[in-house]
Amino acid sequence: xxxxxxxxxxxxxxxxxxxxxxxxxxxxxxxxxxxxxxxxxxxxxxxxxxxxxxxxxxxxxxxxxxxxxxxxxxxxxxxxxxxxxxxxxxxxxxxxxxxxxxxxxxxxxxxxxxxxxxxxxxxxxxxxxxxxxxxxxxxxxxxxxxxxxxxxxxxxxxxxxxxxxxxxxxxxxxxxxxxxxxxxxxxxxxxxxxxxxxxxxxxxxxxxxxxxxxxxxxxxxxxxxxxxxxxxxxxxxxxxxxxxxxxxxxxxxxxxxxxxxxxxxxxxxxxxxxxxxxxxxxxxxxxxxxxxxxxxxxxxxxxxxxxxxxxxxxxxxxxxxxxxxxxxxxxxxxxxxxxxxxxxxxxxxxxxxxxxxxxxxxxxxxxxxxxxxxxxxxxxxxx
Length: 383
Fold this sequence. Notes:
Keywords: Hydrolase. This is Abhydrolase domain-containing protein 11. The chain is 35% helix and 13% strand. By secondary structure, it is an alpha/beta fold. It has two domains: 9-178 and 200-215 and 294-382, Rossmann fold, CATH 3.40.50; 221-283, no CATH class. The chain has a seven-stranded mixed sheet. Helix 2 packs across helix 3 (109-122) and helix 2 runs parallel beside helix 6 (153-163).
């Protein structure tokens, strides 16, 4: 599946220009949109620590949400591809002397997609083999500690590369500030017949209220609650939802018990006052069908591999941890803030900072000041 090159997004301008200025790319959670981040983005852009470093903030509508295309599939792997393509497109808009790099911020579903992009690109030497057939043979043989790459992360990286004009198996040098690898200009695998392109430079990441261990679509209570909400939305009769009040009533009748959740869902409702008809901004059928594939598809590779040391079998391929500076922010009352999950973060990321902010799962707009005051020093250090 080709990544999307036409995601809708909103932009908040910062006060910085030139090669010392950076950009934020923000991805929202399931059933959210770029609008969920508009207020906090304005606060970030105007923050004393960031005003002189931040050029702009791009808030995406992920596929099947908001103004972006409604298409299938909707998996962790393709969402990661969409983020990579958008970042490369935005970098192409800015000349090399006017680009200070990118910091990625992702909440919930967007955080899982951001982690997927970071972790798979950290493992380019292991996943971007010159021969896809050899890679598939090694998956079949179990060389990746039993991980089979069911979502096709390796193939998705090749597709992104080709979509953006890079050789299929060329590392994109995403983490240029953390490790040395061939760039688009110097790699011997770069075809002389192709236009030279700058590799993507991601400087840091902020992951909001989600961990790699959250198995979306599993039998745990959080996943079951979200699945039940999606089922309730499918049962709701749009013909009865002609205004906000009637929408609240219909969602409650359909089984959405929490008033706050009903109010959040109604931000996705579009009312046509001329016809009296309504529709969802989100592609509800696809989101429900693919809900079980939103979790981090690389999870089993990381958890199955030994914590320290290497296997005595030289065929085995252990995953590399992402060395990028990464801040995980959790709401103090969030059901996703679990100590047993947070304890495992260093299995995936070697340069992790963790923080808590008073609030729940939507901590970034439940407690805007607390969230901004927490992430601003980290962003100021890495922008």
